[in-house]
Each structure stands twice: as structure tokens, then as C-alpha cells.
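Data availability (excerpt). The following record was deposited with the supplementary files.
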Amino acid sequence: MKKDIERILLVEPNFPIPSKSNNHKNFLPIGLLKLASYYRDQGHKIKLVRGNLKSEDFDFKPDKIEITSLFTYWAPHVKDSVAHYRKMFPRAKITVGGIYASLMPDHCKKYTKCDQVYRGVHTEAEKCYPAYDLVTNQNPHPLDYQIIHSSRGCPRKCNFCGTWVIEPRFKAKKSIKDEINKRNVVFYDNNLLNNPYIENILKELIELKKHNKISWCESQSGFDGRVLIKKPKLAKLLKKAGFRYPRIAWDWGFENYRDIKKQLGILVKGGYRYNDIFIFMIYNWNIQFEEMEEKRIKCWEWKVQIADCRYRPLDQTFDNYYPKESQTSKDYYIHTQGNWTDALVKQFRNNVRRQNICARQGLNFYSKTFERMKAKKNIIFKTKKMSRNEVSKYLTKLKIDYWFPDDVTYSDYGLKLKYEQEKKVIELY
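Predicted structure:
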């Protein structure tokens, strides 16, 4: 018996994403695009909206409304969309799915007042090619990439990550070559290298690249360095397949730096440059600021860039972090068990930003005055040939700010003094 044709409205809430980044590879509502294809194949009528549109902008009266969710701390935006479209279409059944819905289903149901919560991955929609036309029709610039999952889930169970909760079983594909339709490919795998068929997949990509069918690839998540150490030949395959901006994770303490250095060496031997590589580092977490600074400075020694990840608990339902204001834990999550403070969170983020600028541009120090081009070009040029001591004396005399990335940097002088005193005590022994 033929199913009744339904009108289904797919909604991406008004998340705090700049409009110019709507079609950015990190924010594309890929789940909704797969659902759109799935419902189209069944003969249903679908409409995708991004944000809370006014009633006069609609020529579509849905029977069902399906709303996606992202981070748990963006829950208020999901609630707003449910309320907005409930008022507009009171008879339509509203379902919320996505990350927040899967991690906190009971909270989502009660807080948003939706009719139903969908947990996990929609297995049938997962088989469908995303309806990219729905986002390119809303944007004058066509997408130059596509998103692919060669696997779902992750065999690791890191306590700061929700992947293993949302996708408890690790499922891997043997081949993805028939899914490639665009020249650039972004992998949304949570642990790409753990796919047991990864060598075959990389060889498929190498062949496609050889015939100019693809230009570049990128992995949204980092490469599992433990797999790289076991299978170092993967680095060369990744490079040949066109993977750019490789990322590895340094989640744990400073004592693991030898393993990280080994992983970096494998990537460099595979053809990557140090300053093309990023290291994910989670902060505002169990590892204290002082140790995070040691890790940061070690990255500076290697001249790699840092992708800093501010920790929020998996059940945090708000985040009003603002980098230019003094704030408290009422505004955003501050991990006090790790002795983090608002000042230290912002100091570390600022240190990473300045260090990355130096790593990218091959500079030995950072200056806000130089970054804003408020110094004469001959002064900037002259400092490039100076030693550290010469830079300090020269810029101090000119009253121009400077910062060396290999300095442990505190925003709180009292903390800095305490650190230096403890360091002297350690050195005595």
C-alpha cells in the first residue's frame, strides 16, 4: 500500500554562526540534507529552512517538522525554534534530533517541549547522498566540497567526548569511491584511521587524485596518532591522497610529549611540513594551566600549530563565553577542579592565538603593534634579523609591545610569581 505523501519541514535552528559561515564545512547541516534525500526518495515534499523564518516567508504548510541540534550548550536555540514553529504550525508534529537530542534526550524533551526526540543516527537516511542543492539554492556560491563518512563511531571511550554515546558501535565502509561527486572531500569520521579498510580507501582517493577527479581531502577530526605509530605508512598515503592540514590530538599530560613527537615525525616523513600540522589540545579541563603552558611551549619548539579546544561538560546547556570581558562560571563553564579561572582560560587562548601567528609566519616573537601594522615597515624588517636580547632592548626603547612564545605567560602577576618561586625550588633539587 502506497504511503500518504507528507509535507516535511527540516529546520536548522538559529545557531550563533555568522551568515558567511552557513555553508562552511564545519557547520553544514549534513544530517538534515541526508534526511531530505531520504524523504524525497519516498515521495514526500520537503523544505529546508535555516533559522526562524517569518510566516510571510512560507508557502509551505508542514505535516511534520524535524529540527536538528548541535552542541548541548546551544540547547536554547533549539528550544526557540521549537517554540517558533509550534506557534506557526500548531498541528504539525515536531521531532528534535542531532547531538544535543542524543546526549540529553530527557532534558531535550522536557526543555524544548517537542513531541518526540530522535536519538542517534538515522540508519536509512545515512545511506542517502545529501541534498546539497537545498543549501546551494540559498547561497549564490556553490559548494566546492562534499561530506563523507567512511565510518561511524569510535573504539575509544574518552570521557570528554560524546561520540561513543551517540554512535556506540563502530561501523566502517570498505569503499567510498562511488560516493565521490565533488573535487574536494571532507571526512566527518570520528576516527578515520581506525577504519580497518583505511588503506584501501586511501588508495581509492590516490587513484581519483591521479585522474584529477579530486583536488584535496580533509578530516574534520584529528588523526589517531596511536594508529599512525602502528602503521606509519599511512602518513605517505594520506599525503598522496591530498589530505591537508593534518591534525593529531595531545589530550593528556606533558609526559606524553615523546609519543607526540614521534607522531609528528611520521607525518613529516610522509611529506608534511611541521607548520602545516595542527595539534588538538583540550584546556579548561583536568590538566592545569601550568602544564598546558608547558605543552604549548613544546609545540612552539616543534613549530606546529595548536587547535585549542575549550572543554565543556557533555551536559552543559549554556555557554555565554565572551573573550573580551571578565566572567564567572555563571556565564560559561570554568573547570575549577583543574584550578582554572576565567583569566587563565582567556590567557591560554590568547597565548595559543599569538603563537600560531608566529608559527604560520615564521616569526620569532609576536607584537600587537606589528599585527595591526602600526609600526613603520623598516622597524618590522629590522627586528627580523635581531637576536632575542636585541629585540627586547630595541622594542623596549621604542615602547613597542612584544611577546616571545617560549615564555610561560600569566595574566595574573601573583600566579606568575608563585610559578617562578616553585620553579626555583624544583631547580634547587
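Summary of structural features: The chain has three domains: 7-117, 139-361, 368-428.
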